[in-house]
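User: Can you model how fe (ii) ion sits in this protein?
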Amino acid sequence: MDINDLKPITRCTVEPSGDGLVARVGDEEYLVENLPIDTEKACRVIGQLDGNRSVSDVLASDAFDDIPRAHIEAMIQSFFESGLIDKNESPDCVSGFECILELEDLQNELLYKTLYRNVFWEKCQDPSQVPLNVFYGMAIENYHFLFRESWFDSPILGFATSTESRVLMNHFFCEEYGHDELILKSLNEIGITREQIYRTVPLPETLALCNSLAHWSATDPLFFFSTMGVLEGKDLKLDSYVNAMEESGTVQEDFIKYIKSHSNINLQDAHGNLSREIFRRIPVVARSEIERMKRQTHMFIEIYDRFYTAIWEHYSTTSSLLRLVN
Ligand SMILES: [Fe+2]
Ligand SMILES: [Fe+2]
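Assistant: Here's the modeled complex, given as structure tokens:
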């Protein structure tokens, strides 16, 4: 903020002393020398900074016309730095809940521009056009993602900023634990065993998503929390993937049922609300933090978009479902 727009409060009394002035705070005295302006006028300026008037209002007086503005600003600045004058700036921050609503606005804008229109979700609108391997491939990549969920859910369990948020996160972790096993049951139904899936690697885009989330979870907890609503399907009333499989007429019911039960857990336990519930328990977030998280949101949505696009591009063209490492 421009120094002239501030309404500073003087924390000291001042009076001229020789070539400089003496500033007193309680029993302490400070000698200020080499002032860039006349000592008498310096004391008058400082004395008028009462928290109610801006610096420019104070300097509007004719008495200070003959002093270069830059000199007065330099003097006030040095008093800020020594703590003798308080800037009296109101902190630029919002509540955690306002913060997540603002981030969600951007998430939604980007999701509707990219991910919700990407090839995977577009094709799911007409399930008869989706190859069986794409439905299976989605389960395989989802398995890999859930199998690695502890990479990104566990670093956050010790979140110290808010006890209530930490409790919520720990509760969520317990609910999520083992969901990869549900997907594995579906894969078992089409003949893919645990031993086989252990010998496979995810698509690079799946690993990129896992690695990014693990990085954010370990280094930027607040931002990681903001991603959870998107990952858990905050806007969904039903799972379009499950719906598409059911409507396709090509996917066996035994394969769908475990994936559907996982999807229902997310819906029934309101996992999509998790980001909001966590942020609701965070009292304040600085404006600068929100702007930083907005910049990262672009990257997160792009990585998530590529996760689904890659599933379509790989599994719609391959005849072998498993990407074996040997
Ligand atoms: Fe889950
Ligand atoms: Fe979940």
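A couple of observations from the model: The chain has two domains: 3-86, 93-315. Residues 176, 232, 266, 271 surround fe (ii) ion (ligand 2) (CB under 6 Å).
User: Helpful, thanks.
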